[in-house]
Amino acid sequence: MPKKDIHPKWYPEAKVICNGEVVMTTGSTQPEIHVDVWSGNHPFFTGTQKILDTEGRVDRFMRKYGMASPDEESKVDKPKSETDIKKNKSNKQD
Question: pTM here?
Answer without folding.
Answer: 0.46
